[in-house]
Amino acid sequence: MANGTPVVRGLSAGPERRWGKVLTLSLADYSPCTAAKLPMDPTSATTSPTLQTLPPWAKQLLKRPLIEIRRGLSLDYDPPFENSSVIALTAPSGKYVDIRFRLAHKEESSVKKESEHFAGYATAGTATAILPIGSTTCEPYECTVHVKWEHPIDSSASFATDGADMYLLANGDTMEVGVMEIDSKIRMFKEYWTTPKHCESSDYVVVETPASKDDETKGMAIRMGNYCQGVLQTATDFWVERWELNNCDWTKDARSNTGQGDDILPCKWMVQDMRKVGDKTAIDAYTWEVIEASTS
């Protein structure tokens, strides 16, 4: 999920050291609040591991809902730096909203996909995990999963699918490793993610306004723990909001590009109450509906 033009590529050290035989899973497949809907025969322990048979590292890497805050980015083997305020919210279904506000006091970086509508970059869509289970010629990697992010909502309008390997670190954080093109060169990137310890992520709401055949508008918003993020993309505009709960009050991040009194995104409606599946709100010409929630 790095800022740049990502290249989906599995890291390998030779023709055999690849992902080999993999099991493609929706992130909801290993949610503790849903039944395991495996794409393979669940009776086969070698091809379809259930949640109970997965090692602890896999359970942690596949845990959803998930709040991720980026703590640094490095290129190749350079020291990490941070030039953005990055928060990604991912629901058990894999629906996610990733918003990256540029830190104005930081120097400009070549690792960027700046939006013309706000100082930063944002995407939303669906994430899918690929769990390596090895093959007869390749032992499976441990403490890592491969994740692909589809972003039909993209402030850079690239709408590509990117991917990277997620490694579980000793302190419980994760390191995302992949490659991307910068100035016509393919370079390795590493992003360092942490989960906030002070807030509970089990309560969540996912809201969407679907795109129609006659309208290119599409939007998504997710409330999770102490955060709520939303994006709305039209043929000509891109709107983004981030809200945070502090001292029992929800406040909108000043870097959001909607005015304090503007009702463009459903975030204010979402933080007023814990919404449930099927709840709807109309804003201008668009209807937003809760499609996933921790409460029924």
UniProtKB/TrEMBL annotation:
<dbReference type="InterPro" id="IPR031818">
    <property type="entry name" value="Hri1"/>
</dbReference>
<protein>
    <submittedName>
        <fullName>Uncharacterized protein</fullName>
    </submittedName>
</protein>
<dbReference type="InterPro" id="IPR043047">
    <property type="entry name" value="Hri1_N_sf"/>
</dbReference>
<dbReference type="Pfam" id="PF16815">
    <property type="entry name" value="HRI1"/>
</dbReference>
